[in-house]
């Protein structure tokens, strides 16, 4: 397995797609029930293959990721050629960006001396989707990129 097995909830959401996946292998409901009952290892392998296919599709379309912790934000723009990062660090230990109060403080004080910024970019390895998946495993979530774009515009402004 290249990525991670989808959760039970994710598999339930993708039930129609999973049925289509099984159908492409000429496995109908009766046969799937038999496989689950008599060959659980084969059923597990099918779930793993399906999970990897879903991850591959999702990761190939991901453009933005965010990883926000109490004192830091890592905002990623995943282009065709590289991963661009805008990192934000809060130097006030009383501020927690994961709370509404903390994020509101940040929105009012983003230009203060208590906020530090860094930008970077990094080329992908030979497997860009695996690079993206590693960021997700570390806590990043897929977003539409509003925060990254806002910061990118502020940084680029004359």
From TrEMBL:
Q: Please identify the protein, giving its name as recorded.
A: DUF6495 family protein
Q: Which domain of life is it from?
A: Bacteria
Pfam families given in the database record: DUF6495 (PF20105)
Record-linked InterPro entries: DUF6495
